Amino acid sequence: MKKPCAAFLAAFAILALANRADAAAAPLASLSLAARLQTAPDSTLVQFAGHSFTLGALRAAHNAREAAFAQAGAAGVAIAKLNTVQSSATAHTGTKPVTNSGRVAFGVPISTSVVEPGSDYAGAPADMRAFCAGAAASACLYVPAGQNLSVYNNLILDVDAFIDQAQCAKEGGSWSNYGYGWGSGGLECGFSYPTSVDVHFTPSPSFQLQSNVKCDTTLWKPTVDKNGAVVIQLATTSTNFTSGNTPTCVINVTLL
């Protein structure tokens, strides 16, 4: 079974309820979405992922995740300001990577800088779209920080049971049964992030370029190929993993 969001699991340390009787807590699935979000008291004990928590703690974790969604665009803009190409030229060597199962963009329009088109991540959740649009980089991958994530069908999955169907759609999620058994009616909101991106470009006649890479290399494997490709792939081989504080990868390439 896939692990739920780390933002919710963070309540373990806050509440220290592992020794409390699970019998005193109602299953989270037994509460309506309205009860989980608003009507039930914060002090209500619920069973979640085999442990007991207060609704107040779970609500706080959910709200923190929503705040991260709201800040994604600004975070991308901040990286764009920092991720300027270095002044000295760097000649990159290597063979052109084989197109993988991630997002692929051929014939990217370029002048000096290689820029990944927005259509390349148009199907991603809203926070990734905002982050990558703000970063305006040659290649960009994103997952939300501090989450327990699962690799599922070659996508990175994050699930939130405190979001209704309308909000799920607005934030670019999918309303489905992900097998957790704690969503309303067995359904919950899942956010699917790509595991890789492969952006192709026409190299300069000199095959020289400058690049700047800002990636969490515990999570992502970046590659810049002077022959015409910028590639980011998932580096971890774990099916379930926890994202860090800056679990993103942004590459800027300028042709010389």
Order of the strands making up the biggest sheet: 9-10-8-7-15
Q: Given the structure, what is the number of helices?
A: 6
Strand residues, percent: 25-35%
Return residue spans where pLDDT drops below 50 for at least 5 consecutive residues: 1-21, 85-111
Compute the average pLDDT: 78
Secondary structure: elements and pairs:
Blueprint: H1 6-9, H2 11-15, E1 26-27, H3 33-39, E2 45-48, E3 51-54, H4 55-82, E4 103-105, E5 113-114, H5 126-135, E6 139-142, E7 148-152, E8 155-160, H6 165-170, E9 174-176, E10 188-194, E11 196-200, E12 209-215, E13 220-225, E14 229-234, E15 240-242, E16 248-255
Parallel strand pairs: 1-2, 4-11
Antiparallel strand pairs: 2-3, 5-16, 6-16, 7-8, 7-15, 8-10, 9-10, 11-14, 12-16, 13-14
Helix pairs in contact: 4-5
What does this protein look like?
There is one protein chain. The chain has 256 residues and is α+β, with helices and mostly antiparallel strands. The protein is built from six helices and 16 strands. α3 links the parallel β1 and β2. The termini are far apart. The N terminus is likely disordered.
